[in-house]
Design brief:
Elements: H1 18-31, H2 39-45, H3 54-69, E1 85-92, E2 103-110, E3 113-120
Antiparallel strand pairs: 1-2, 2-3
């Protein structure tokens, strides 16, 4: 996802094929369970499922192109003797220019393996 993407509903923008967009985003949501690197971008584009526009479809296809170039990425669980627990969090307070809502998230590792993560607007 482009930083400061500025995706929003435009008044006179061209509409995208809604069924195609919804199918694509649904598949990306399912895939994001094992590809946490795309969860933020998928969360952004899933906000426009009710009335997608061409810019939203372009953003979804950009994620697909990213996935094509990063096939070896994903959640990998390795056996380790060390069971140290690490957690990280971040938040972006009131960053959405439309509704002034915040975005926050966290993820935790056990023994160096990613076990939980969450992102929420």
């Amino acid at each position: 996802m482009i930083p400061n993407h500025g995706l929003k509903m435009e008044e006179r923008a061209d509409p995208a094929d809604r069924e195609r967009y919804q199918r694509l985003v649904g598949k990306l949501i399912y895939l994001s369970h094992t590809r946490p690197d795309i969860t933020y971008a998928v969360g952004i584009i899933s906000q426009f499922m009710h009335r997608p526009q061409v810019d939203h479809m372009d953003a979804a296809l950009r994620i697909v192109r990213y996935l094509k170039g990063t096939i070896g990425y994903g959640v990998f669980l390795a056996k380790r003797e060390d069971l140290e627990i690490d957690g990280y969090t971040d938040a972006d307070w009131a960053s959405n220019p439309i509704d002034r809502k915040s975005t926050g998230g966290y993820f935790t590792f056990i023994g160096g393996n990613l076990v939980t993560w969450r992102s929420k607007k």
